[in-house]
Amino acid sequence: MTKPDTLLHQLVRGAHDLAPLTRARYLADLDAWIAFAGANPTGWTRTRAQEYYNRLLGHMKPQSANRTMAALGYASRWWHTRHDGVDFAVVQQAAAQTTAARRALDTAEAQALLATCAGTSAPDLRDSALIVLGLETGMRRMSMAGATLEGLVRQHDYLTARVPLKGRGEDLFAVPLSDTAVAAIEPWRRWLRGHKITKGALFRALPRKVDAQGRTGHGVSPTPLTEVGIYKIIAHRAEQAGLERCYPHILRHTFITWRLQAGLAPYEIAAITGHRLAGV
């Protein structure tokens, strides 16, 4: 009987959709995983994969760890379809849609959207952070809803956000944050710290309140914004900017489209967005 590790190597070697350098990297990453978890797929659980991923983050940057997990996801999905194994893939597909089918903002539209929240009020600080995070990371709204203050962790020489890919309670994925994203998030974090909030949901509802002098301000909810709440915020800001058909996923499409136009490879984009690689 063919050993599982040998079969998985054969699947990667015979994958026509992988470039030679990508195939070689996948094989090396597969070797490293088997050395960690063993050759028997019955022990390849999501918990085990998350342990491996966390270990990778201890000595490599998030993009590198995410790319490593792409190789494991590629092989495990094929194993899953053939032998009822466990699919523990952390990285999902990056370029499933063509640019023509993918609705993306242009630079002027993105600037108009951000201009609607250029003030210093609490809603402006929150909404600006939300929009920039979408444009700079391609993060899904379910990940934004699941983002936490304690999940913002400095990894190597830059900040990362540990967020769920499939809603709260699922495996965490380290998303590297650009300087632009950090600059947008920091004023919102300072506002939260001013209200003695240092843990819990990053994005929250902001109920209006009136102080003893009759001045109107904003309180902060202990519960996170829901996905519906995030959708409504983006839709409201888009209406203010005069944009049509604007919703949170457009920010993700915009990130991918802009990066593809800049020459970034799909697997490099996948290492940030948490997509599967094309062809899997």
- Across the major sheet, the strand order is 1-2-3
Q: Could you describe the largest sheet, including whether it forms a barrel? A: 3 strands, antiparallel
Number of strands: 5
CATH superfamily of the largest domain: Intergrase catalytic core
User: Which strand-content bin applies to the residues?
Assistant: 5-15%
Return the domain count. Answer: 2
Proportion of helical residues: 40-55%
How many helices in DSSP terms? Answer: 11
Helix-strand topology string: HHHHHHHEEEHEEHHH
CATH C-level class of the largest domain is: Mainly Alpha
Describe this structure in words.
The chain is mainly alpha-helical. It folds into two domains: 4-90; 107-272, hpI Integrase, Chain A, CATH 1.10.443. The protein has eleven helices and five strands; from the N terminus they run αααααααβββαββααα. A hairpin with a 5-residue loop joins β4 (208-210) and β5.
Provide a short characterization of the protein structure.
This protein is mainly alpha-helical. It has helices at residues 4-13, 20-37, 46-57, 62-83, 107-115, 122-137, 141-146, 179-194, 227-241, 248-261, 266-273, and strands at residues 152-155, 158-164, 172-176, 208-210, 216-218.
Which helices and strands occur, and which strands form pairs?
Blueprint: H1 4-13, H2 20-37, H3 46-57, H4 62-83, H5 107-115, H6 122-137, H7 141-146, E1 152-155, E2 158-164, E3 172-176, H8 179-194, E4 208-210, E5 216-218, H9 227-241, H10 248-261, H11 266-273
Antiparallel strand pairs: 1-2, 2-3, 4-5
